Amino acid sequence: MVTKLLLAATAMAICRLMVTVGLPLAPAELLRLGVDGNISVDASDMEAAAVDFGGTSRAEPLAVLHPASTEDVVKLVKAANGKGFTVSARGHGHSINGQAQAENGVVIEMSVRRREAEKRTSPPRPRVNERERYVDVWGGELWIEVLRAALEYGLAPKSWTDYLYLSVGGTLSNAGISGQAFNHGPQITNVHQLDVVTGRGELMTCSDKENQELFHAVLGGLGQFGIITRARIALEPAPHRVRWIRALYSNFSEFTEDQEYLISLHGEAASKKFDYVEGFVIVEEGLINNWRSSFFFSPRGHPLNISSLAPDGGVLYCLEIAKNYLQSSADTVDQEIEALMKKLNFIAGSIFSTDLSYVDFLDRVHKAELKLRSKGLWDVPHPWLNLFVPKSRIADFDRVVFKGILGNKSSGPILIYPMNRKKFDDQMSLVTPEEDIFYLVALLRSALKGGDELPTLAYLNNQNSQILEFCYGAHINIKHYLPHYGTRHEWMDHFGEKWIQFHKMKMEYDPQHVLATGQRIFPPLFRDGQVSSS
Ligand SMILES: Cc1cc2nc3c(=O)[nH]c(=O)nc-3n(C[C@H](O)[C@H](O)[C@H](O)COP(=O)(O)OP(=O)(O)OC[C@H]3O[C@@H](n4cnc5c(N)ncnc54)[C@H](O)[C@@H]3O)c2cc1C
Ligand SMILES: *[C@@H]1O[C@H](CO)[C@@H](O)[C@H](O)[C@H]1NC(C)=O
Ligand SMILES: *[C@@H]1O[C@H](CO)[C@@H](O)[C@H](O)[C@H]1NC(C)=O
Ligand SMILES: *[C@@H]1O[C@H](CO)[C@@H](O)[C@H](O)[C@H]1NC(C)=O
Ligand SMILES: *[C@@H]1O[C@H](CO)[C@@H](O)[C@H](O)[C@H]1NC(C)=O
């Protein structure tokens, strides 16, 4: 009886697809999987899965799965192994180079639009354990929803990304870094446990104590070993408010010395350090360069005069720091901040400060997104380049890249801030430079689409190549964050000593190279359901 119903439902689904969509059918096997969610070849689903935030790469999938449960993911990955197609989890599609795409495979749309999903079968909602201070979340949950769920209990995650419309599974497959990483470590070191559907289609729970090799491989593992369907994320009591401060420097070595001083305070009492330390480079003014921050420097309507503040070289550096506090300690926060600021060497009188709720602080980039969207400047090509630069060479990087190659033009925000390597876990797949302190340099630039405000993609790509050539030529041991390479040799170089383990874990957990082929690390072994000869 049940089987008959299922068959009837499947037949109806096929008819619906053929009649209403009229696109070529996905392999018939897919439609017989009987998932709790749905498998779609809808034009809008297919289009969304074919592109990403980078806006420059495209790959057409066979179909898109909207899973309603972990079981759906298991079924699909098992079928992929049996029938010979690839599968990529797609968090929120915020990759730059097609990392979540699946050419001729199935894309699993992991992210959940919570408000729309109320009435449908949908993945499990976040579950907070108040006493033990953690939250269990679906792998496709966006961080903004994790925050909302935790705040209902007065709790919040500890380590963040600057932008919250990213998925938990997507950031944990990379690292998840922001101004808290110096203190709490990246997001991958603030996870207690994961449920992972491996590339073989087996559901495994893993942690520091259970299946720990898999746990470490998956964190920073670029989606190569399994699909994260649940993550247990550490929480802390949520601060109420944030004092958000910026101060300017024209002298790069004074800027970095202060940043490094501030991140050296991580071990001290909470009152004796900042909770967030970042910074950015200012080579020109304008919305596209400072979209993360534009309101800041004109509190009284005075735009920054860069040439008067930075006469030599024309580059300014902005330290960005924040102090969290509880309503009950609002009286003492000013004194604590004053004591900390006294030790710093910013340009006298260049402090800009604002006070806002914790949520508004964490969600700050989304406001900038809305502003850019309203001007048609969000859906443009983003040739972003994220590099970890060892502390010993950051001054060379400044001299040649910020003061040279960029040619006084930024075309987007350029972040620069240091982190403590000891807050990272070397057993995990993420690779960083070997020095105790390394910087994230994030060139978050936008290319021309229609108007004439922005440089062309070719121009920015060429600049990115020049930057990389300089680093390699000068033997600066950078590591790419959110890496993207074309050849096996480059990937081996990237992972260095970790390659052997990375490869071994791939053979163990995804021997048929089913998962996340958009990363271009292990080429698909299947082509059109056949084992490829290459
Ligand atoms: C505006 C913006 C701001 C950003 N800010 C930061 C920041 O402050 N800090 C930072 O660290 N990063 C930041 N990022 C980068 C971000 O971390 C990456 O884009 C990351 O990939 C998360 O995006 P996503 O959830 O959309 O993942 P996707 O791009 O969809 O996926 C990324 C990779 O992970 C895999 N994957 C996705 N979900 C899962 C899962 N559940 N299980 C296993 N593998 C999975 C995919 O197959 C793909 O290979 C930012 C990106 C943008 C666009
Ligand atoms: C499939 O699921 C997605 C997301 O849950 C939803 O938007 C879509 O309407 C569903 N399609 C069908 C045919 O049920
Ligand atoms: C920058 O500051 C350092 C340390 O105070 C100093 O030695 C150096 O001369 C300064 N550089 C410039 C260009 O002023
Ligand atoms: C900026 O400063 C420079 C140098 O001090 C000065 O010549 C210029 O007029 C100033 N520009 C504005 C807009 O105030
Ligand atoms: C950038 O501007 C500064 C001062 O305005 C100038 O000295 C410098 O040569 C310029 N750099 C480049 C690469 O054009």
Automatic annotation (TrEMBL):
InterPro entries per the UniProt record, alphabetical: Cytok_DH_C_sf (IPR016170), Cytokinin_DH_FAD/cytokin-bd (IPR015345), FAD-bd_PCMH (IPR016166), FAD-bd_PCMH-like_sf (IPR036318), FAD-bd_PCMH_sub1 (IPR016167), FAD-bd_PCMH_sub2 (IPR016169), FAD-linked_Oxase-like_C (IPR016164), FAD-linked_Oxidoreductases_BP (IPR050432)
Residue ranges of domain FAD-binding PCMH-type in the record: 57-238
Keyword line: FAD, Flavoprotein, Glycoprotein, Oxidoreductase, Signal
BP GO annotations: cytokinin metabolic process
Coiled coil: none
Signal peptide positions (record): 1-22
The reaction(s) this protein catalyses: N(6)-dimethylallyladenine + A + H2O = 3-methyl-2-butenal + adenine + AH2
The keyword DNA-binding is assigned to this record: no
Cofactor(s) this protein requires: FAD
Entry-linked Pfam families: Cytokin-bind, FAD_binding_4
Family: Belongs to the oxygen-dependent FAD-linked oxidoreductase family.
Protein name listed in UniProt: cytokinin dehydrogenase
Native source species: Nepenthes gracilis
